[in-house]
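The following block was generated as part of the benchmark described in Methods. Ligand: uridine-diphosphate-N-acetylglucosamine.
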Amino acid sequence: MIQVLTIVGARPQFIKAAPVSQALRSTGLTEAIVHTGQHFDAGMSDVFFAELDIPAPTHNLEVNSLSHGAMTGRMLERLDEVMRAERPSMVLIYGDTNSTVAGALAAAKLHIPVAHVEAGLRSFNRRMPEEINRVVADHLSSLLFCPTKTAVENLAREGITSGVHAVGDVMYDTTIQATERARGRSAILEQIGLSAKSYAVATIHRAENTDDPERFRRVLAFLEAAARERPVVMAVHPRTRKLMDSLGLSPKGVTLVAPLGYLDMTWLVHNAVEVMTDSGGLQKEAYFHRVPCVTLRDETEWVETIHAGWNRLWTQSDYALRRDIDEYGSGRAAMDIAATIAALQERSR
Ligand code: UD1
């Protein structure tokens, strides 16, 4: 019987699962990986498995390109079948995507304990699909691995105090490993024709920015203004590409590139002078590389990056006074997660 059934489906989940999968294996736990199929092509999925040494998924559900309801519903149905067949001792979910919430629901209904990595994050904006996914996933989980103190406090405010572990951020673990690998291996600066510390990196993909064409135009105008100061490179997510094509828009002066693999993205951010993004993960990665970030949203879950002056919302004119953040752990979050899961499995034998 499999001890841990890991559910992933979208790019940020591959990045978070990489160090945890490694740690589970080194702790002697057996793991099977289910890929829901939410992100499906080579550039958004395969390259991450290859570059980050993630074991190949044992199940690929191929659910994608549907409305939120249909996507989550189909995943739920398929995950229920997989879980009935595998009977895992625990289901491991990551982050806040439709794959996260489908995994949590399928497991909870089969009385399989759920462990949630990156638990307790809140934007307090229920119009974001991710916020709904986080709240539901956290309330269905029995092990909640929090990346920050704020996340622990958010859970406490919702009455969740048992099974909560402040382990730090697994993305910090991934960033440390990936930066070392990217050094000397990534030729992305040469390929784009950039010199280190001369440019900004941008990404946009959140529904809140891409659902409303007016807002999307304002975000692009923000990037165009930045590109008048220094080169801006934007790695374009498929959803954003579709929207730009359908509206016939392209930000003037901004260099557009296809979605990048993790090592190239890591190297591009490492050598940037600024990041501009609506991605949750990239806001923190910018800090891990000590690159200031402008978040293209009206709120963020990673409030400590704002308080420490490394991040500002695009609605704010300036950064707070800059200092280090002591919340994200020491790069051993994945090992702590594996040890906690192993101890729990030992006790329930
Ligand atoms: C999802 C997550 C978000 C996460 C983001 C990372 C939800 C609700 N949102 O949003 O939390 O930050 O992933 O990227 O789960 N597509 C391709 N090729 C691919 C992958 C996607 O063409 O390999 C297209 C899809 O067909 C779709 C769009 O891109 O049109 C992606 O939409 P969706 O699956 O909703 O995810 P994201 O916007 O990426």
